[in-house]
Amino acid sequence: MSTQTTTLDAPGAQLVQQRIAWRTPVIYLVVGALAFVFFGLLTSADEVTRFTVSTSRDFVTISPFAVPSKLVGLVLSVAALGLAGWATYLTRERRKVPTWVPITFGGLVLLAFLVWVMAGNGNALPLTLLLTGALVLSAPLVFGALAGLLCERSGIINIAIEGQLLAGAFLAVVVASITGNPYAGLVAAPVAGALVGGVLVMFAVRYWVDQIIVGVVLNVLVIGVTNYLFSTVLTQNPQALNNPPRLPTLPIPVLSQIPVIGPVLFNHSLVIYLMYAAVAVLQVMVFRSRWGLRMRSVGEHPKAADTVGIKVNLTRVKNTVLGGAVAGLGGAALVAAGLAFTKELTSGKGYIALAAMILGRWSPKGALAAALLFGFADSLRQVLGNLGSPVPSQFLSMLPYLATIFAVAGLVGRVRPPAAEGKPYVK
Amino acid sequence: AAAPDEESEESPEAGGESTGEMVDYTACMISDEGGWDDASFNESGFEGLQRAGDELGIETKDAESTDPGQYASNVDAMVQEGCDLIIGVGFALEDAIEAGAQANPDINFALIDSAFSDTEFNPVTYDNAKPLLFNTQEAAYLAGYMAAGVSETGTVATYGGQPFPSVTIFMDGFADGVARYNEDNGTNVQVLGWDKEAQNGSMIGNFSDTEAGRTTTEQFIASGADVILPVAGPVGAGTLNAASQAEGVKVIWVDSDGYLQPANEENKDLILTSVMKLIGNAVFDTIENAVNGEFDATPYVGTLENGGVDLAPLHDFEGQVDEELVAAVDDLKQQIISGELVVESPSATPTE
Amino acid sequence: MKLELRGITKRFGPLVANDHIDLTFEQGEIHALLGENGAGKSTLMNVLYGLYDPDGGEILVDDAPVRFEGPGDAMAAGIGMVHQHFMLIPVFTVAENVVLGHEPTKGGAGIIDLAEARRLVREISDRFGFDVDPDALVEDLPVGVQQRVEIIKALSRDAKVLILDEPTAVLTPQETDELIGIMRQLRAAGTSIVFITHKLREVKAVADKITVIRRGKVVGTASPKDSEAELASLMVGRSVVLGVDKAPARPADVGLAVRGLTVIDERGARVVDDISFEVHRGEIVALAGVQGNGQSELAETLLGLMPATGGSITLDGAELLGRSVDDVLRAGVGFVPEDRSTDGLISTFSIAENLILDLHDQAPYARAGSLSPSRVAANAEQRVGEFDIRLTSVQDPISTLSGGNQQKVVLAREMSRPLRLLVASQPTRGLDVGSIEFVHKRIVAERDKGTPVLIVSTELDEVLALADRIAVMYRGRIIGVVPGGTDRDVLGLMMAGVPAETAHKDAAAHHTTLGAADLEEQQ
Amino acid sequence: MSSTGTVVTPPAEPSRAPEDERPSYLQQVLDSSWMIILSAIVIALVASSVLIAAANAEVQEAATYLFARPGDFFGAAWDAIYSAYSALFRGAIFDYQADGLRRIRPITETMLASTPLILAGLGLAIGFRSGLFNIGAQGQVLMGGAAATWIAITFQAPVVVHVVLACLAAVVVGGLWAGIAGFLKARTGANEVIVTIMLNSIAVFLVSYLLTTSVLAGGGSRPISPPVGPNAQLPLVLGPPFRLHWGFIVALLAAVGVWWLLERSVLGFRFRAVGANQEAARTAGIRVNLMFVLVMITAGALAGLGGATQILGTDKTLQASSAGSIGFDAITVALLGRSTPLGTVLAALLFGALRAGSPLMQTSANTPIDIVLVIQASIVLLIAAPPLVRSLSLVHGIAKWTGRSGKEARA
Ligand SMILES: Nc1ncnc2c1ncn2[C@@H]1O[C@H](COP(=O)(O)OP(=O)(O)OP(=O)(O)O)[C@@H](O)[C@H]1O
Ligand SMILES: Nc1ncnc2c1ncn2[C@@H]1O[C@H](COP(=O)(O)OP(=O)(O)OP(=O)(O)O)[C@@H](O)[C@H]1O
Ligand SMILES: [Mg+2]
Ligand SMILES: [Mg+2]
User: Fold this and answer.
1) How many contacts does A have with C, using Cβ atoms within 8 A?
2) Is the ipTM above a cut-off of 0.90?
């Protein structure tokens, strides 16, 4: 610390070398070795793995191809092991391991896994669709996690994400059906989410009700209300009330024509682009803007914020309502393909979003990464279930949840929530 | 153990044409966790109950269950409310209905999709409890044959909500139907999403996540499937949605005729046919018999023969499907009805 | 700006913390508030700053009544406050903390202009000779530096009235000296300052006017020229002996022996670097040093909270290193942590529970895994009487106690059982003179019972009052061991890293304000 | 989110005491907590009656000619509301329409429904008091229920022994399942909220899978276990027609045990210390990481036992969905009970009553089950918000009015 007293000169001499953090390289090495044995050595030599990379709708079509499973498995896992070795070397030399290393390593191991699991399968693995599926499935989770972090960063625990997603999806469907305009639904969804957020924060701030109670109860309330409206109103006239048009796909010129990346990232409806924008904007605003600074101060130490004239409760109200609105958008994303409303169609996604928020350490880009991890595992489980795998479907269904536990225990570790979350501010 | 004969003599007369006039009879129904709007067997059963209420002039009561803990209390509430006939929907209600039947010998019971058995899984019967069963696999077999014949890509697909017997019975019949087509025509049409041998395949994991149904279907389509059978209640809407975005992909609906459902109006032209399981009719018939004092506890088994299960009309695909194929399907139907061909599924309830 | 309080009353349940207080703060004047722990000083200031709503009375700014709905209003009226408990956000940087609430922005989107914020921090630091890194995270800073951040924060808003609630409790003599300089500078510029402290020496050095509060009431005013003893007795309501009457130590055999101790923290810094010293039975050794020179780590390692990388710590010949905290406590070590609120107390627990925090599994409080609430309460009543802890009920949460009384709870707990070693960090931080007198007597009594005592303190008054020997720590090493009663300025220089002999020479040349005052008093 | 564990008890009222210092007698009565709860329930029922009326077919019909014959509308509304709430009362407390012993059966049904909620709620309460936010009761209940079922259907043992063994298995498996989250938190710092949410889903899939194998399905082909034999069932407390079984007594004993653990035991002192301030707990010689594991194991054991009572006492068979919403309701139950054992028991009884009353509300009053959910939610929200209830209640209005007039009189 260069901030001792004025009489001290800057220290530094006694700063010995950083203790080496062996955990990460060890994980790389173990995973790499396992990949080498299972995805390489133990694969039978005369099997092939088939891939399709593009769909007929793509600009550049690449025809399906097959690769020898064992050889490719070996090559990929050896490459991964190499990277792991290099990362170990860098760690020992106390040099920083560049960010692309874990990403590439993960990619290699994953590919090796796919080659292994599809070895000998008569069907080809639709690679592009696997990734598109991951993105689309994670979109509601991303919005949900962003909503959660907006609330929690200001000190309000938002367990009601599930209810906000559901309310958003409901209103989006109804409004889009009545107006016949999918964009009207996209505008309406945040209103529903914000309303739920408003109730949450009213009870939390005005009546000091435990925020978790309010959240859990609001979920029940929204389920009850939407179920009721669905049964009594929507089913009476599904044509007019529960028949939303599809949000049109808007391919981004040029970008959408890049092979693989184009269809995966740049050939979506507006709601996915809104997701990109929301993550990018919030990442900047939460950490760099006046609004973000004040929001975080209120979530960390409300009394300190109060002593510099920040209106603690007002800040919480505003952010929770905004968060609710963002979650509402997530509901819209869930039905963006023009899906009709069905009872409890969020099926627990709000809770997964909550986990993604924590896994992402209450930061927008972290939330994106965590949601993508879950979405990818979910997409992969679908693909494997569809194409036939020896693993019982129940175990495939566990995949996303196991992957999340692995991520939080193995890669992320201790996370620190906003210090004042869940505590009502009473002077 | 059939219903005692004396009962019919004692019961009051309730004529066939009873529209409007009130009859002193209460028929009651309890859903499983799906609830009445499950776009599946609860909904079909409930329609039967409502029809009975309208047409027979009887009183009806219903209770939805949200979890297994409520089955017994719902049966009890029905008994308290003076129901004459209590119908449970789904195998999950077996124990609750069974206990109710034992405790209330003067009330009639019925159970959809399951027979009664004891702890050792030996079938048991009760004089006042009637199982309503369906050989769904028979109709699904025809659908599989039809799907294989219609497929241009040589790949068809199916997925379920959860691996329940009432779900996989569709998938078993479907897979066998496709295999039969391959056998008859020397083709190699593939079924994605279900392996009958291993009893394992593609499952959404619930009956509510339409979006997952949509993405699953997209993946099937990407893998070349062009006829898809979703067996997951409302999740099927996701399949219709995905099919509407692809060229030449057809959907086979389940439970009721999907072409006629208002919710499917937009995409009904994609519905090739439906594997119908006419629970509503079975429920209505059971209630009607009971009202007329003709309740009997012998299991009702819906088959192609008695129309309890069936393949829906082709509607818009009429004339588009190869006539030979239609003829072959009709022929198979006759074979099944005659007993010449037996379609098996481990999920079918054995009835002697 | 002139600020006037009229009839301010504030109650907490049955307790009247401020009882019809009338006070006037004139422009350009340093007004000291004195009062024992729990007298109601902080409460009064919180009312003035808009944090508490008074139950009665009014505030006048330049003779016009005002009503503060919250601190925002108070700030707008030109009042700034440095709180007794820091109002800093630990995960923010210094610059972020300083500009919070009045952030400079650039562009339309409200993005904070960090360059401007840093410039602001630097400008104020330079003006007052602070050395604070605007980009350091506050939680990584030693408490002394955090205090400066608080002051910078208050100054950055150009307050016309500045309230300083015990700002010097965590400062070194040099730092205190600087602060006094700053206060004078501000006074010259027309700022009024309300200065709360327990250190009479400081009051005498800087205050223009002194008001004494006792049990929520103003009991009188005093002049800076009055002697410390006069001030003290006015404050406490009885005469106080300043400075401890202690017999010379009669050291027996070695109790605590630390040999070659080295500690490396998580960041890889060698925070304790090959340290060796001994504390004899019946002797008080003080570890003096500027905060952040490894004393806290040394104390934590003694208790088993931090692992050591090398060396040994023996107590009466038995090794302590490698044993669990529980074991060390059971071996008879009494431990007063330097930060009572995070390490010493559980704020939501009752006072009675806090009084047995590290004894909860021992007889007579626990038998066969079961606690006896009546014995816990009886113990509490006894300690409360013994240590004169001011409270309403021992079953109240400890968070309702004033800062000083909380500290007494920790001391009462640690000193109330048979000890074989007492390690106390900043034992009298925040205590009033009366309480300090009492605590010091207790510590000396502990020594006289034959217990080795290790005092870790940045407070030279305390070191001088208690220590039989003084070890000065600098950057993880002991730079020298000098006898108790060594000149204040010499110690100050040693704490800045100057070896003992050089320090003796230098000290004669430049005296600090307080050091000079000391010498004056001695003459 | 560990910081959320310490349940914030809202302070009595903001300290903006009005000028008149002594609250009127009416206000004092109103401030007593049972009055608050009573008012909360009344207000929630009044609020929900709007929905009940709106959901009723006759009311909807009468509404179409509301202006022509408003009497019809209000009559129908009154009938709908009256029949719904009388059904709730008859289903949950006392059935005045039944004969003989059956009249008091509803209250025993309420106790029955509250049994797993008490046990799971107690487990969660321990977690909350120890600073751990365990969302995993759902999975722990299911795993406990599955373990009990496995013992019950796989082994033979004499009366008493069999059911005790089955319950023990539930305690162990529930404890271990929750212990995973505690262990991962202690070892790697993994946030328990994430891990327990994930473990909930994993438990459902694991049990679904086991229900397709002979482990839990016996020899059946359906994903449902065979009924547990008489030896393994929890015995009835009162005998037929009452379904109330010994699980309820066990739950009450567990509540006493948890009270002792939290308030009177050394271990509980450590749990609470860790929950309130980890640093201070560590300095006081408490092994914080060990406490995390122990807290989770205790919580899981209680939730697992709750699952066992549900299967061995109430349901008799196991399905993947047997946990219903017990685990999630238990979160509300524990928090509503302020994480104290007595509060948890009372809150669980409230939930049990709403649950026990819902079948009759559906069958007798035609109230849709979804409305029952809404009623539940509003009652809970209002009970949790005393200030809101105070400001809404009629008595408050009167108190304010009399207070004011009294002051005027004094002036
Ligand atoms: N929030 C509170 N609730 C209840 N009592 C309180 C609260 N805050 C302070 N008190 C009580 O009010 C009295 C005055 O406390 P205050 O903090 O003003 O004392 P102080 O003069 O600043 O003491 P110290 O020198 O120890 O800081 C004490 O008895 C304290 O216990
Ligand atoms: N990141 C760092 N780089 C260089 N030196 C460091 C760093 N962190 C700590 N040090 C040094 O390690 C020693 C101990 O630091 P630390 O701030 O932990 O002290 P401390 O005694 O615990 O202070 P406090 O009383 O604030 O807790 C100091 O000498 C400090 O200069
Ligand atoms: Mg104070
Ligand atoms: Mg430190």
Assistant:
1) 139
2) no
